[in-house]
User: What shape does this take?
Amino acid sequence: MEINLTNKIVLVTGATGELGRVMARTMAVCGADLVIHYHKNEMKAREIVQEIEAMGRRAIAVQADITNGCSVATMHEAIKRQLQHVDIVVANAVIQYQWKSVLEQSPGDYLSQFDSCVMQSVYLAKAFLPAMIARNYGRFIGINTECSMQNFPTQSAYVAGKRGMDGLYRTLAKEIGGHQITVNQVAPGWTISEKDRAAGMENSASYERNVPLQRRGTDQEIANVVAFLASDLASFITGAYIPVNGGNVMPAI
Assistant: This one.
């Protein structure tokens, strides 16, 4: 048994980011062709495309502002011209900002998180789901966060955006499940990325002591779960919020 994405086309938003680039590479290793979305970092997007092409897979780089419906629609048309359709959408992009207390956080930061967590997924759904419905097949995967269950001080804008995203995904799973399209969320913990390795910052005793597995997860471990949900091995999983954080948060029943 293996994760086989051969002949599947995957769109990863924010694919030039620390987690996004590993997700894209992992999907390619599993046999998929890739759409590498970027907002500003075209050079990194082109580099990732070259990496994936070297694996023998097709890949294109497409620019879009995922918080703008017209921009997402334009991206969709560009993908149709080059690759026809998308089988799997991974909504990974998110706007970065400085975390502050509720009283200090600017209203614009709350709006940025709503736009990049909720509205990104709305725009992606409107653009890509109709064709999935017509084919009676698809995967729609969103990257959430363990913070949605923590609600720690200074997390409010991020949590508000991601909790709104959670409600959207659960509703969407019920609305389109009859078309054999699954809708799921992966919720990473504080994950070790290429940047952390380069800086020698893989470990944090204060964080790890509260994690049952006593360590931080890696970008590859997050990508592995995304690839699983994208595959036919996960064909009967939908509406799920799956923490990938060593047990640091545990959804209850």
Notes: The domain at 9-244 is CATH 3.40.50.720 (Rossmann fold). The first helix runs from residue 18 to 29. The mean pLDDT is 97. The chain has one domain: 9-244.
